[in-house]
User: Fold these one by one.
Assistant:
Number 1:
Amino acid sequence: MPVDVKYTTSATAIGGRDGSARTAEGNFSVKLAVPKELGGPGGDGANPEQLFAAGYSACFLGAMKAASGQLKIKVPVDTTVTATVGIGPRSEGGFGITAALAINLPGLDRAEAEKLVAAAHQICPYSNATRNNVDVGLSIV
């Protein structure tokens, strides 16, 4: 399916999972560290899974705001989306990731919340990129 690209960006990593990454614009730079659970030293650097979780949670919240106009459902100002991303070996070989989104829509009726989350899951670019490839769980908390 073609995409009518409206914005592009790029980031460059140096040193892999135990190096650093920086956007071309220079507005985001991060030190990377391999988690102990994956055989690394851990430490104060971030890892790609954390970056993915941050991006997915922010993007999904944006998708809910986009869907809210279409559905005439107001997104509460204190809404949060927490993305939990896992990584591990796949039975088919290599590694895979999982994602779970916990969506908190304080004060919103359950039926409206479910409608909003379902619509956002169809709109969100991260959801579309992972669909049929990554196990993504959605829960309203």
Note: The longest helix spans residues 48-71.
Number 2:
Amino acid sequence: MSQQTAATAPTPFRRPVQFLAFGFGSGLSPWAPGTAGTLMAVPLYWLIADWSLPWYSVFVLAMAVLGIWICGVASRELKVHDHPGIVWDEFVGYWITLWAVPVDWVWMLAGFVVFRVFDIVKPWPISQLDRTVKGGFGIMIDDILAGVMACATLHLALWLL
């Protein structure tokens, strides 16, 4: 039986873990669910953007650790590794991208674009991790690294400006 026929249909509005994994429903977008998930992360960023850097860091770290569990459970329930609708990893990747970056719409937009490029293109070592690491950690790690690389790109831009 193929993985496609063995998969279980997502039920994010009946299963709390899938609701979180599917980014409050944003991962159900028929077009570019990862981008839709990242868009959903933007207003949530606004809620935490003015926190002190230590509290922001603790929050993002906690959401990354929680995300490993959330994505792992959702993946097992759906019987599909890294279902396209699982977008909690995009939330965390975007929040990592904006770590210690000025809270301004220009940087939020730049962070969105740079993170999506790293997440879609998946340059090495992101691509290697995406192919080889499984489970909830595997779902999260490529977006975490994309967020770190996007964050470094924004900090380089800040330094050059």
Note: Residues 3-160 form one domain.
Number 3:
Amino acid sequence: MTADPTWNGVALDAATALALLDWQREMGVDEPMLDAPVDRFAEPLRDPAAAAVAALAPAATQPVRAEVPLGTAGAGPGGLFDGDDLPRQAAMLAARATTLADLAAAQQGFDGLDIRKGARSFVFADGIPGARVLVLGEAPGEEEDRQGRPFVGRAGQLLDQMFAAIGLSRTAPDPDAALYILNVLPWRPPGNRRPEPAEIDAMLPFVARHIDLAAPQVVVLMGNAAAQAGLGQQGILRLRGQWGTAFGRPALPMTHPAYLLRNPIAKREAWADLLSLKARLGADQPAQP
């Protein structure tokens, strides 16, 4: 039998130790510190997100590292781009992907963002590729980071209820009734903070390629980060409900379900936006013979 762990000389049982870890995570701790330094460069590279890739293709793919050939314009020593050229590096990696599985491996291999170091999971997508409606969110939260899927916490439950009210579901096998869901950032920011503009810019080529490969008919932009990525604008309370064009497709900005949980009175406007989406889908449906 092993002794209980200690903290500041005080013995801890398992439940107390887990509670302390949860508290540290909620405070935004993203890097453990040991008594002796660890040479991270001597450790093997992590495997790709097996769950995300396996769900999209029968055969596993290898991650594409975030290096580019020496001599490429903008590349520095070792073939790595600096921070200002991360969008160009991401665009090169994204352009090579011909399938969603390829893109998942390429995106997870992109090491230009520090937030990946503190995230538990790489959160790629959920739902049915080829669905008429693609929902673009902001970034994973705590529950999404734990499960490795977008929109599965309280906000995700509300999102499912909202779209179910107009006959759409992420689990529907029929693309006409299905949803495909992803976030601008595939890793959880520390402390659930908002995505930063530089992070959005770095991920934008992956998002654009992801939408091209998923081939939705319309895109729903959930929240400010999604509006920034798709429309180059923020101010979701001003933008919501106004159809525009994002990633070459009709796009509808909507308030994020997390905002609706904090401000239930705003659900009335969200319902109006859902009805607008339903009407748009019905108008685009081919006439029955």
Note: Residues 43-82 have pLDDT under 50 and may be disordered.
Number 4:
Amino acid sequence: MGMAVGGNKGSMSEPNIVPLIDVLLVLIIIFMVITPTTPQGLDTLVPQPSPPNQPENKELLAKTIVVQVTASGKVLINQDEVSWDDLGSRLDDIFKLRAEKVAFVKGDDAVDFGQVARAIDIMRGAGIDSVGLITAKVEAGQ
């Protein structure tokens, strides 16, 4: 336990560290359980391609907002060119009256990911709740 007898000084007490070890083991188990529940990364949406035999829904296409970052550094909102400085205010105006704040971002193959991340950051700052990613395979319907 925690006591040693002997020597010329009489009895000598030692601290009992068993309860301390028990507490530390419980804390380790708690942290191991909590750690996997922390979110990591960005929540994204990937648009699903429509079946090839079905005609395109014009109403859905009119409501869909796609921010495209080109290899030359230009930014487009649904084929309308916008400067990087005006991107946030334009998106804010578009989504001001919409209940569903979902938009997609598309980057050309030669675009540095930093530019796409910058566009996502501006989109989130403009109040867009969900940002989806469009890839070349999704666009081709694969």
Note: The helical segments are 18-34, 58-63, 84-94, 113-125, 136-140.
